[in-house]
Amino acid sequence: MNFLTAFGVTTGEFALGIMLIGGIALGVIIAVRSGKPDGAAAENMTTLIESLTKLSSDQAELRGQISQIAASQETGRKLVAEQLQAQEREIGKTLNERLENVTQRVGETIQKTTDKTSESLSELQKRLAVIDSAQKNITDLSTDIVGLQDILSNKQARGAFGQAQMEDIVRDMLPAEYFQFEATLSNGKRVDCLITLPGEQGDIGVDSKYPHEGFVRLMEAQNEDERKAAGQVFTRDVVKHVQAIGDKYIIPGETSDWALMFVPAESIYMELHTNFQNVIQEGYRRKIIIASPSSFWAILHSVRALIRDTKMREHAGIIQKEVGLLMEDVTRLDKRVGSLSKHFEQTGKDIDLIQKSTTGIMRHGLRIKQVDLEGDADDGPANLAEKSGASFASLESR
């Protein structure tokens, strides 16, 4: 292949030459073997040479066409290359613009993310501050709960705590003249609070103590048997305390026929109403109402409404009495106005008569003024007296 290229011969031309040589040789061999005379062989050879010559000419023409195609391909390749370069430059420009846009957007997104992150961190710091405050409150509450447990574990301290809570609620709900703390009854018993009801309904005794030990034992029960045993002890203690309240603080003719047992915890109240209905029923039977802080507040609200209604009725009686007295005053005033109206009417008539007399006097005065004394020389004193008498007579008639 390097040898052919060195002499400017293509592979196609080399193959065609080989075919020509082979064709001539083949023609000679055919002529010899056919036993034809030399003239026929020469004729065949001439025909073959002409064919090969034409074939060579066609090959040259084909080569020229191939060269033109190659040139066209080269031109097309250059044009395609230029188009590709132009497209590459356009693509590069577009990519740069898009890259700049993406970079700008990414920068804006990063800035927004940074701002939001800063805001989130600020909010997080605020929330952490709130959580710290809540944690501190929880710690303080835990301390208070421990203190409350210490109070509830001591019977005397528990009684003082319950009574203090009960007294605060009473002070907030009722006027001072309608309750008394540590009041002594006629039987010598001292009640924690005595609520005075208006009218003849009697006073209500309030006891602020309760058997807490049984409730603690009930809450600390580990199994059903322990809970059952603790429940029996709790029931017994509460029923016993209810009976004691009824015996000490309900006195016929002095107090109301029912009393209150105040428990300072809603959990105890709910436990009694949920699992110890027999204790609640025993309290109802003995007219002892077990009250938690919320239900005690509702009871005192009803008492306050009763007090307000009683005061309104009392004030209504006073108002009705005052209205009756006011009506009497109005009646007397009406009579006096009637009498005054009559006086005004008579005064009006008298004023009319006076105005008429004044008008007559003025008219007669004008007449007297117009008298011609000189023209009436013939009139003597007797005539003047007669005229004057007639004038006064006519004035009196008016």
What would you say this structure looks like, in words?
The chain is an alpha/beta fold. Among the domains are: 2-109; 172-314, no CATH class. 78% of the residues lie in helices and 7% in strands. The chain has helices spanning 2-6, 11-34, 38-153, 155-173, 212-219, 224-249, 266-275, 277-285, 293-369, 381-397; strands spanning 179-184, 190-196, 203-207, 259-262, 288-291. The protein has a five-stranded mixed β-sheet with strand order 1-2-3-4-5, sandwiched between helices. The chain is elongated and about 190 Å long. Mean pLDDT is 76; it is low at 1-9 and 391-396.
Could you give the topology of this structure?
Elements: H1 2-6, H2 11-34, H3 38-153, H4 155-173, E1 179-184, E2 190-196, E3 203-207, H5 212-219, H6 224-249, E4 259-262, H7 266-275, H8 277-285, E5 288-291, H9 293-369, H10 381-397
Parallel strand pairs: 3-4, 4-5
Antiparallel strand pairs: 1-2, 2-3
Helix pairs in contact: 2-3, 3-4, 4-9, 5-6, 6-8
Query: What is the overall number of helices?
Result: 10
Can you tell me the overall shape? elongated
The average pLDDT value, as a whole number, equals 76
Report the span from N to C terminus: 176 Å
Strand content: 5-15%
Task: Enumerate the spans where pLDDT stays under 50 for 5 or more consecutive residues.
Answer: 1-9, 391-396
Structural class: alpha/beta
Number of strands: 5
* Strand line-up in the sheet with most strands: 1-2-3-4-5
**Helix fraction by DSSP (H/I, runs of at least 4):** over 70%
One letter per element, helices H and strands E, the order comes to HHHHEEEHHEHHEHH
**Biggest sheet architecture:** 5 strands, mixed
Report the C-alpha radius of gyration, rounded.
69 Å
